[in-house]
Amino acid sequence: MITYDFLQKYWWFVMSLLGGLLVFLMFVQGGQSMLNSLSKKEDEKKLLINALGRKWEYTFTTLVTFGGAFFASFPLFYSTSFGGAYWAWMILLFCFVLQAISYEYQSKPGNIFGPKTYRAFLFLNGVLGTFLLGVVVSSFFTGSEFTVGKGNIAGLGASGFTISQWQNPLHGLELLADVRNLSLGLAVLFLARTMASLFFVNRLDHEVLEARSRKFTLYNGVPFVVFFLVFLIWTLVAEGYAVNPETKVIYMEKMKYLHNFIEMPIVLVLFVLGVLSVLYGIFNTVFNKGFKKGVWFAGAGAIVTVTMLLLVAGYNNTAYYPSSVDLQSSLTLQNSSSSYFTLSAMAVVSLLVPFVIAYIFYAWRALEKKKLSLDDLESDGHAY
């Protein structure tokens, strides 16, 4: 019989994998943040926008799936984070709404705002969307200012008192005051820009843009590595939020996340392989002018790396959403998940996920049998 503990860990793995996919697909946002710097002419901008426009729905759909799956599997996190740090989440989601509007309306007849306005919206989504996602994910390791009324979970709390309460009036914006949060936010931003550069090298039939994209791979890859190393090293040597498996008491443990890697060797090996794959994709694209498949190596590596990093945040008796003001309010896989029935029912549905991924891969390949050129835009009835 499948145990409750297994289902909780299974769904944390699913959430971690979705998080990894989302970070990879953020190359769309990364490309949007470089529209003006990477392109010099109007036809070059249109080519970049249309290359990204064929992929933006993947990112948006994955974000919605990520939020919906979190709500179903770990509802207490959903209510605590989305209901408490709502300014950070609302700004992030608003950026994605601007993205959807911009792609659909920038080239519509009678557009009174002009394409430059919508491209500014795309730039805003590209910068803030990636940066804020990294900041929020970093709080899985640094902690947030909230309390959870455990009596209210059992229905014993005072009338009108919510289960979770955010203890900072900035409601999520205070996360920007933590340097470690900023470092991961900047790492995700520059990773998205690096992935976009690799994507353009692989996708475009345009010698000038391809040459510039290789340079931008270096320009963005270096700061990505720097900021990611700052976050990673700082996190590995810092105290972490551990859970006593017997008493369920949460306490601070020195180098907790380093211990998690050591005590879960498979996770450690996959994490290292993921990092090396990202570096290989970047390095080979920059220094080998005939290499155009860097996005696939770096993309797969990013998915694996982020997935393993999130597993370290939740597995091995660790509080995945810690409270920095009240340790015992921290959320763990055990105290924040849905019921056994809900998790088991969803687990059956999740068996269809591989088929969905296979279909996405098939559709992606079918739409990209040839590289995108300026001539293709003229013959395309749905050019952005």
From TrEMBL:
Cellular component terms per the entry's GO annotation: cytochrome complex; plasma membrane
An example Gene Ontology biological process: aerobic electron transport chain
Signal peptide annotation: none
Subcellular location: Cell membrane
Membrane topology: Multi-pass membrane protein
Record keyword Oxidoreductase present: yes
EC category: oxidoreductase
Coiled coil: none
EC number(s) per entry: 1.10.3.-
An example Gene Ontology molecular-function term: metal ion binding
Pfam families: Cyt_bd_oxida_II
Record keywords, A-Z: Cell membrane, Electron transport, Heme, Iron, Membrane, Metal-binding, Oxidoreductase, Transmembrane, Transmembrane helix, Transport
Domain of life: Bacteria
Membrane-crossing segments per the record: 12-35, 56-78, 84-101, 122-141, 182-204, 216-237, 257-283, 295-315, 340-364
Family: Belongs to the cytochrome ubiquinol oxidase subunit 2 family.
Name this polypeptide is given: Cytochrome bd quinol oxidase subunit 2
